[in-house]
Amino acid sequence: MPTPATLFSMEYRHLGRSGLKVSEIAYGNWITHGSQVEEEAARACVSAALDEGITTFDTADVYAQTRAETVLGKALHGVRRESLEICTKVFWPTGSGANDRGLSRKHIMESAHASLRRLGTDYVDLYQAHRYDHETPLEETLRAFDDLVRQGKALYIGVSEWRAEEISAALKIAAELGLDRIVSNQPQYNMIWRVIESEVVPLCEKEGISQIVWSPIAQGVLTGKYLPGAAPPAGSRATDESGSRFIGSWLTGELLERVQRLKPIADQAGLTPAQLAVAWTLQNPNVSAAIVGATKPEQVRENVRAAGVRLDESIMRQIDEVLGDQLITDPSETSSPPRRP
Hints:
two-stranded antiparallel ribbon; TIM Barrel; 36% helix
């Protein structure tokens, strides 16, 4: 049987084969900070995360057109820096110039320094390539990241939504040139969206790279609050212009009906549907952390109760049986839900 959610205790996992430990529930501010919620509410959510043992905070320069980093930096001001793992990303456009995007040396260096200013810190614990850049030589990108590590401005390097062959190519170059090595990948992963399981996870397990997964609750769909044939609840992500672009394709009648059938399984496990969804991602031994977002402190407090939960095999089987043909497992799947920047 799973560990009861009432016996909550945050746990910390190594990031790949590195010595860095991260909280298995991480707090992310995509869409929320500087966008959906005001700064005061954002501070309250970050405070709740800290109170609940979350030490890992994930953001990106592109979130809310750079405002998300600023809000997070202010919210973490005064917290002992050594007690935090701050993660950010680079790739998407942050300006109108031709070099204000991608993974060129110029954009990486300029974006890294801008992120540090906005976050109010001298270094980030994890600096991630937000996507793969097909227009920049991979060696150039990896050398720029390596320079940031050697300068002490980034302690570790990761990627986000890279394919297995892209990660493999980066590892080969790093080994040949003696460059700092990727320790993590940040993919979308949840009960429904499982495309990393076939190629990315096996490679990463072999190479000592962890997953820090985003959207463990499928943009809120796996909470069960979206009902088949009903309008989205007022104030939900599906009613917000910035969030609805990413959640719309999940809101199909068949899928929502299946999600409702997960509720008894969550009850059996002593969890809410949201906690069950987050706990499910953490059963994968290649996952170091699941990123949760929130617009209210109580959402943080609910989701962190998935930490330390161990779901038994019968629960895992029941989930698969309920979701059935709704599972998306093929990396070449073309009908994927819109992906966040």
